[in-house]
Amino acid sequence: xMTLLEKLTQPNYVKHIHSLNNREVIEYLSEDNSISEDxxxxxxxxxxxxxxxxxxxxxxxxxxxxxISIENAASSASLYIKSGINNYxxxxxxxxxxxxxxxxxxxxxxxxxxxxxxxxxxxxEILENYIKSYSTLTLNESLITDISQNSTVENISLDSIHDxxxxxxxxxxxxxxxSLKQKASDIHVEIRDEDLFVFYRIDGSLINVMNLRGRTxxxxxxxxxxxxxxxxxxxxxxxxxxxxxxxINNKLIDFRVSIMPSIYGEDAVLRxxxxxxxxxxxxxxxxxxxxFPQLILDVFKKMLVKKNGMILITGPTGSxxxxxxxxxxxxxxxxxxxxxxxxxxxxxxxDGVLQIPVNEKxxxxxxxxxxxxxxHDPDVIMVGEIRDNETAQIAVQAALTGHLVFTTVHxxxxxxxxSRFRYMDVDKFGLVSALNCIVSQGLIKLLCxxxxxxxxxxxxxxITKIExxxxxxxxxxxxxxxVGCSNCFNTGYQKRTPINEVLVIDDVIRxxxxxxxxxxxxxxxxxxxxxxxxxxxxxxxxLNRGLIDLKQFxxxxx
Length: 558
Ligand SMILES: [Zn+2]
Description:
By secondary structure, the protein is of the alpha/beta class. It has an 8-stranded mixed sheet, with helices on both faces. Mean pLDDT is 85; it is low at 135-151 and 276-283. Zinc ion binds next to loops.
C-alpha cells in the first residue's frame, strides 16, 4: 500500500484532491490513508514546505477581517491573522494555490506572510472564537429601536463594515456587501436546528458561503434583516415581505425581502434588484447583448414592427424573461409611443417608460393596474406576468384593440402555453387571435472553462438514439463534463446562456390551435414554414462546441 507521501506524487491523486472543496481536503486524506488529521497536516507541511497551526501561539494572534471577511473566512476555510508584525494565513486546503498566492503576492512582500495548515474542525473552532471576541456589543431591544429610527439609507462599504462595532450588523452588512461583489442574484439565509446557513445564488446555483453556529446568531441575523425591511420583528409565524434600500459603496441598491416561518424559526431570502443596471448612467441591455442566435433575432425584429397583438414569453422563474422583454422594449423605444408597464417588482428603471409597481396590499393588482393603464392612452403595454383570468382577459382585449402587448406566463414550452391559458379559463378565440408569437426561454449552465474535462462516460446507445431522433450527428470528441475548481465554487459550471424556442403565429397555426389539432401536425407545418425555431438548434450547437455537458443537454431534450 502506498503512503500518503507516495500518493502525493501521483498526478491523478493530486487531481482528485484539487477537485475537493477547501473544507474536505484534510478529512479526505485522513480517511483515505487511515491516519489522523494532525498527521495529515504534518505530512503536508513537510511536503509543501508550509507550517501548521500547531506552530502558532494563537493566544497572541488577532484576526484581520478586513483582509479576509468573516463570511469569506468561513466559506473559503482560510483566515488572515496577525501577531505584532507577523502575518499568518491559516488554511484548511494547502493545495488551493491560487488562494495562497493571491494573499502572498498581495500582502506577502510587505508583511512576509507565512502559511499554516489547519484541520477543518479546529479551524471552525478558532474562527468561532474570534468572531465571538471580535465584538463587544450585544444586540438588545433599545439598540433595535435606535437602528430602525435612524435608518434612512445606510451606506455600506468595506470601511463601514470594518468600523462597525455591532457584530450582528457587521455580519448582515458583510453578507449583503459580498453578495454584490460575487454578483449573486439572491441571498438565502436559512436556519437549521441551531445553526445559520447563508447561500448566494450565483449563475443559478446556490453556493454555501457562510455558516454560523448557535441560536445567538440565527435569531438576531433574521431580526436585523426584518428591521432593515421595516417588518414586524415580533411576528414570526406568518410569511412577511418587504424591501430594503441600501447605499452600497454609494450606489443605491434595492432588495426584495421574503421572510418565511419554518420549523426552526424563520428563513429569509433577499432578491437583489440593481435599479441602476439599466438606468441611463449605465449601459442598457439591448437584444444584441443577450446572445440570441441570428435566426431568433430576425424573428424578434419582424415581430417588433407590428403595432398590435401579443408577444408572450414563457419559462421558469429567474430565466431572464423580464430582461428579454426590457431589451425588446428598448428596441422599439423611439420616444414617439407611450409605453407603460405594470410589474411585480420593477427590476430595472427604464428611460422614457412609465413603470407601475404592483402593490397587492394597497389593492393595486395586475388586473386593476392594467385597467387603469388602458385609460392612460398607451401604445405599448408590458404586463410583468399573467397569473389570473382577469389579467389575461384584459391583456387579450388590449392586444386586440390596437396595442402591442408584451407579457410572460409560466409554462414549460411554447406549446404548453395554450393549456396554461385554458386552465385560467381564457377565451380561446380571443387569445389565439391576439397572439403574434410565443417565445420560451430557459437559462442553461455553461461548463467552467477552467476545469471541464473530456467526457468518455456517455452511453453510446443513448447518443445514437438522439442522433436518429433529431437527424443530426453529435461530435463525440468534443463532449465535456463538469469537474469543479475554485473558479466555479466547485460546481463545475460558470455563467448561463439563454436557450430559446420561438413559435410565430400565422393564420394556419391559429386554425390548428382553435381546432385543437394535435401538436405533431402543428409542429410539422410550423417547421416547414419557418414558423417554429426549436431549442434543439442552440442545444446541439452548444454541445458540439463543448460548452455544455450531456446532463444539461438532456434536461432540455424530451
Ligand atoms: Zn471550475
